[in-house]
Structure formats: structure tokens, C-alpha cells
Amino acid sequence: MDEMTNLHEVHTIQPGDVVKGRITKIEDGQAFVDVGYKYEGVLPIAEVSSLRIEKVSDVLQAGDEVEVKVKSVNDEAGTLIVSKRAVDAEQAWGRLEKLYQAGEIFDVVIVDVVKGGLVADIGVRGFIPASLVERHFVEDFSSYKGQTLAVKIAEFDPEQKKVVLSHKAVVEEQEEREKQHVITSLQAGQILTGTVQRLTDFGVFVNIGGVDGLVHISELSHQHVKHPSEVVKEGDAVQVKVLKVDPAAGRISLSIRAAQKGPWESVNASFQPGAIIDGTVKRLANFGAFVEVAPGIEGLVHISQISNRHIANPAEVLEVGQSVKVKVLDVNAQEKRISLSIREAESAKNDKEVEKYVEKQSTSGTGVTLGDLFGDLFKQNK
């Protein structure tokens, strides 16, 4: 085991001894150290630090107290070579092994930016590969020099004198803790404001309080959506309702649709029985046609209410996408049902045309017979 000797207590000195000394003089390529021996020790620039340095003065100044290891002694030549790097390394390897085994986080100062990553002085050379600096891609690392980063040891090999550090691992752990904190605070039924992060074919990821939740495509709108881009874009602020939280899996299910007022909530005020309204044929079935009368609201026109003549199938007179006039027969908002009639809407239209015709003939003073009336109407509808 190396012997520790204090300054001014050295009487004999041998290679391998660890002694304390004081820097007396600094030169670019070396420093002189008073270790209490009969002549000063020389500390070459290569033995100052485990990292490459341009000048000794970048690390040491005259008057600094240092701990050095004796590399060689030659009393005849009056030379004493010492190493600060050797002492720092021996102390560092033991400390680093404990940090590695415990998986502890510690701070380092970035002293250099090199090809492929960053370098930190941790008593030995610590390397942070570019892929382990951040979670996101960094194009230019120049601003990192001089910064203090929290790191963990990702790879530790004393035999190969290799220590790989990771700042990314610390960031990920911190984000995971924050994510779990947010997830455990969420409850189904909450209405929150979030930001659309990214779109996929199956839905949208929305950030709420620092974590992402999924809004499935079926939960984007009260209307049918073919792709999320029809409804939202990245960066949009949206209100979402929490549907389900799974802390163990780290999953949050959200709904934009459930956070909005449903179209059926105001249907009673918007559609009164007897009203004639516009609609679009959305689907055809053997028993009738489904007609959209407002976004998210479809009503059924029973086959018996499609035409004044008998038809065996709605497709005989209707097609998907066709615009039609319908009469509201009945509204049941609670069960989300509206009964409609195309036949009665057409009859009402004919009744109005009769009234207009009669009024026109009366104001002109011209007599009108039923034959004239229905003859003219027949010509109009022909």
C-alpha cells in the first residue's frame, strides 16, 4: 500500500510513495512541486490530468497544494518525477466503482467536446457518447462545454480504463418519475386541457401535464373520422376527458369527443316535429334510409315514408350522398332517435304549391277549376 507523507516530513522518498506538496513554479510543459525533499519534484504536463490539456496553468497555479505519486527518484542526477494524475486516478476508480454499483447520479463538468460526444474530468476520463447526452437529437454540442450535467455510469471497465457516462439515463428517470406522479393523480372523468403532440392513423397523442395520453380515432369527434388530420393538427390546444388510467402500464386513454357537448343534447330545441329540413342520405338498408340532418345526427326514414308509391327497396329511389327534404315525425333525444319522412315532406311541398297557385289565380281575378289546378300542377311536377 502506498505511504502517505506530509509536506516537510519527508526524509527519504521512493518510487510509489504518495506525498503532499505545493506548486512553486508553473511552466507550459511542467510544474515544480516542493514535497519537502532535498530538491523539488517535476510534474510533467502529461502527469497533471487524465485529460489532454494545452498548458499546466489551465489546471494548476503556483501555491496550490497537491497530492502526487513518486514516479522516479535519481539523487545522482537530482531529478524527482511525480504524478498528480496517478493519485487522482487511483482515488477515482474506487469512488466510481461505488457509484456504478449503487447506480447513483452525480454531477460532472464537461471539459471538452470531441467527435462523437463529450468528455468530463472525473479523476479519470469520462466519456458521454452523443447518443447518451439527451433523449432528442443534438446537432451541435459546442454549447455543452463548461456545463454541469447530472450523469450515471453506463459502462465501467477499470482494466480497460474505460468509463462511459449517460445524461440521457438521468433525464429518462426524471421524466418517468414525473410521469408516474401525473398518472397517479389522474382520475377517470376529469376534463383537462392538453396539447396535440403527434398524429397517427389510429389516433392522436395529447400531452397533459407532461405525459402523453392516447385519443383513439373513434374518440376524436361525434362524427365519423377517416383520419385524425380532419379534426386536429400538431400543436392544437384541446379539451380532453380522461377515460381510463393504467399506472402499471403507463397508459392514459383520453377522449376529445366526450369532452364536447354532444349533438343530441340540443336536438329537441333544433328539430321540432312537423319541421321540414334538409338532409343527406348516408346509408341504405332494406327497411329504410338513414339521413344526416346535422353533424353527428342521423334520422331514419322508414321505407313506408320514402315514396308515395310502393317500393320494395330504398335503393329504387334513393342513393347514398343524395340531398333530400325530410319532415320530422318524432324526436327522442334520450334514445338518440329521429323519425323522418321524405313522402310527407314532398306532400307538404305540393300543398304549398297549391296554396300559391290558388292565391295567384285569386289575385288576378281569373276563375280556376280543379281541372285547371291539377293540370297545371301536373305540368310543374312532370
UniProtKB/TrEMBL annotation:
Keywords: Ribonucleoprotein, Ribosomal protein. Pfam families: S1. Coiled coil: none annotated. Transmembrane segments: none annotated. One of its GO terms (cellular component) is ribosome. Residues 16-85, 103-168, 189-257, 274-343 form the S1 motif domain. NCBIfam families: PRK06676.1 (NF005208). Belongs to the bacterial ribosomal protein bS1 family. This is 30S ribosomal protein S1. It comes from Fodinisporobacter ferrooxydans.
